[in-house]
Amino acid sequence: MLSLPDILHICPSTKRLWVAYSGGLDSHVLLHLLAQSDLQLRAIHINHGLNPDADYWAEHCQKVCKALDVPCDIIKVKVEVAARESLEAKARTARYQAILQTITPDDVVLTAQHADDQAETLLLQLLRGSGVAGLAAMPENKGWLVRPLLGYTRAELYQYAQAANLKWIEDSSNADTRFDRNFLRHEIMPRLQQRWASVSHIISRAASHQAEANELIQELAAQDLQQCQGHKADILSLDKLSKFSAARQKNVLRFWIKKLALPSPTTKQLQQIVSNLMTAKADSQPLVSWQGAEIRRYRRNLFAMPNLPPPPSPTKTIKWLVSSPSPRLPLGNLKLTQALPSGTELEIRFRQGGEVIRLNKHQRVVKKLLQAAGLPPWQRQFIPFIYLDNVLVAIPGIAEENGWDIEWITN
User: Is residue 348 within 8 Å of residue 317, measured between CB atoms?
Assistant: First the structure.
């Protein structure tokens, strides 16, 4: 039975709680329950403008909140969907972005997902072939986001709403079975409930087990990453990584890529990293890339990075008056840490091949300097060469003569 004390036990102790209030049954029940407490409470309604009745829904939410004496923020967002993108996913992203821009760091947002939502989420993830992390479905507590109703079914929320004589919005799109979640909700879950009456709680419990398993997997990945981490966060040692089993290799790779805030690879792409990059010949330059990220190999190390831009033309030149900020380069920018006359004009060029630079009164071949410095081959196309009066005077971090001190800060 739904009760305020049980909900308050889940709610964190914070200065201010927000209820993500759509006007539908679930969020109305949550708002009505919490409005009976002495918590500092606000409601937030996101108007996506996707339904012809969207403005009416916003007005309804304002009226309900006024009756409950709960302040309500109505925020309009614009949802733009490109080809092959999910409208539901884009709307959710826009909604969360709007909420995060509204709340303060100490605030917590409560959403009204329940046990049936949790069961549907796990089934969706299962049908997408997700791993343990995906099958963990929705966590009850995610820092700024808390879901206090995951232990209750939709039927229990409906029973509460009927007893309290609540009036809520019915979104007609929720009945459209062209959407996967609605298909599960209206076609599959009722059949399962006929056979297993507590199916929502059963599946939600399975999600909890997956969440615990995922926590252990993440702990193992963190320990493994410590063992094979290179001298920088975006580098892994192949020699150390190869000592792990194939399953642990994939696990730590997945964890490493996520920790770098890069898009996650698919199962196929992850297998390509293990099969192609880790076993490639020493003199090869293998690459596995996907939208937003790529993994490269050099000298028994793996390197992770965002997709590189097209390399600059070898004939490209950029003028730089040292009294002005560094010009934008294809891969980062420059920082001059020495004083030069304000009228000094430098020229930035990129590698053509065959360059030499004078160091300690001797001519040095730039190709050999780059190799000796261990600069990965893909960066050699982007590293800026600094010229003064048509003479190569500095290669940041590689070769600098006569006190030149220029730092190349890559993206």
Answer: yes
Instruction: Give me the mean pLDDT over the 235-251 stretch.
Output: 95
CATH number of the domain bearing residue 174 = 3.40.50.620
Which two tokens mark 237? 């040692």
pTM of structure: 0.81
Number of domains comprising the chain: 3
For residue 37, give the DSSP letter: S
Q: What is the mean pLDDT of residues 94-120?
A: 93
Torsion on CA atoms 273, 278, 279, 284, rounded to nearest 10 = 90
Distance of CA 224 to the CA centre of its chain: 22
Same domain, 330 and 300: no
Q: Domain span at residue 135?
A: 4-200
Length of the chain: 411
Give the confidence band of 89 by pLDDT, cuts at 50, 70, 90.
confident
Q: Look at 282 and 55; give whichever has higher pLDDT.
A: 55
- Angle at which helices 199-228 and 246-259 pack, to 10 degrees? 90
Q: Which residues of 178-210 are buried (b: 16+ CB within 10 A; e: fewer)?
A: eeeebebbeeebeebbeeeeebbbebbebbeeb
